[in-house]
Amino acid sequence: MTKQILIVGTGFSGMWSALAAARLRHLQNQQEAVEISIISPQPNLHIRPRLYEADLAGMAPSLVDLFAAAGVRHIVGAVEQIHPQDHAVNYLDADGKPQSFSYDKLVLASGSTLFRPAIPGLKEHAFSVDQLNEAEELQRHLQALPQRAASKARNTVVVCGGGFTGIETAAEMPARLRAIFGSDADFDVIVVEKAQDIGPDLGAGPRPVIEQSLRNKGVSLRLGHAVEAIDDNGVTIAGGERIEAGTVIWTAGARASALAAQVPGERDAFGRLQVTPALRVGSSDIYATGDVARAASDDQGNHALMSCQHAMNLGRSAGHNAMADVLGLPAIPYDQQNYVTCLALGADDGVYTEGWDRQVKLSGAPAAELKGMINTQWIYPPKADMAEIIALADPDSRPVQYMP
């Protein structure tokens, strides 16, 4: 009987899970023995790390030809329930009708969503760059601002959250506003961050570069202040300070997909499932990968982050190991010793660090050039060619080094 591997999600980890599983199946000449299916609302990879940009063209490349080349079946649908004891999932198909799918091994790669706490007015009045449709909504809003009556609030943008996404969004915003209002327009871009430092999770290494770049662009910071309320005219922050703004963008953190909560197992504060080195959830037939997995990335106590840098390699490992499990082959433990960061800080500016202590190796235009290569080449899907899939989906190969 044909075995079934089901992958949930076509993000970075889901796509690479499918390709890695197909790679091992091909190398073992087991195409007839195992079927690989992947389920998501659309057969596209959303380039989520770039959604802070103004030009959103090409941010959802099709995976149809790639999956066809790999022999992966795509199912249009949205998974609603996982039944681990029954080895089945329930989903709504393209017509909204309930369906069921039985699996032998499940790879949960359903990603994460923006963390939206119960702050008054956040859901109703804040924009985001978390999903493509949300980034498109923000862009339409910004382009329509000149039609409003001139005011300081109209020309003020507040970015809530000074982490990776908040920094990139804020650094990009001055150029976006100049393109909309004209080069002589006055505007304010303000980052509100509840921590005492910008980029609290990035550490002290790149912080001086980030702070100087934001200052040079006229971006101001409100540090040590939590957002208390958002309305149609701005935000109120801790201490009662009021910032009148026509645009409020929420970027503060992420949480694992709600589907992770349906899988029995230990979870961290982000809702991610604790996994074994093979990315298996306990002794079950479920593998968790990408943003739903809390996985040790090395033997030094570091864990994979909710980023495409880790999701791509987590996906390769999860897909390979699910297929190896079906075929009775040994697993390859997930291992990603190298860690880097590369932030875009607006046009022709950026900062690149290496190591978990984030030592700055490049800044300014050289870092921006590297970020451009990452954003436009390295994170995009491979060619629809089995030879390339075999080469790039190998979990035992070393991750790409982000070096010029």
TrEMBL record:
GO BP annotations, alphabetical order: aerobic electron transport chain
Residue ranges of every copy of the FAD/NAD(P)-binding domain listed in the record: 4-313
SUPFAM superfamilies referenced in this protein's UniProt entry, alphabetically: FAD/NAD(P)-binding domain (SSF51905)
Pfam family, one: Pyr_redox_2
Signal sequence interval, chain numbering: none
Taxonomy, superkingdom: Bacteria
InterPro entries assigned to the protein according to its UniProt record, in alphabetical order: FAD/NAD-bd_sf (IPR036188), FAD/NAD-binding_dom (IPR023753), NADH-Q_oxidoreductase (IPR051169)
Needed co-factor(s): FAD
GO molecular function: NAD(P)H dehydrogenase (quinone) activity
Keywords, sorted A to Z: FAD, Flavoprotein, Oxidoreductase
Transmembrane segments: none
UniProt similarity note: Belongs to the NADH dehydrogenase family.
Protein name, UniProt field: NAD(P)/FAD-dependent oxidoreductase
Species, as recorded: Duganella alba
Taxon lineage: Bacteria, Pseudomonadati, Pseudomonadota, Betaproteobacteria, Burkholderiales
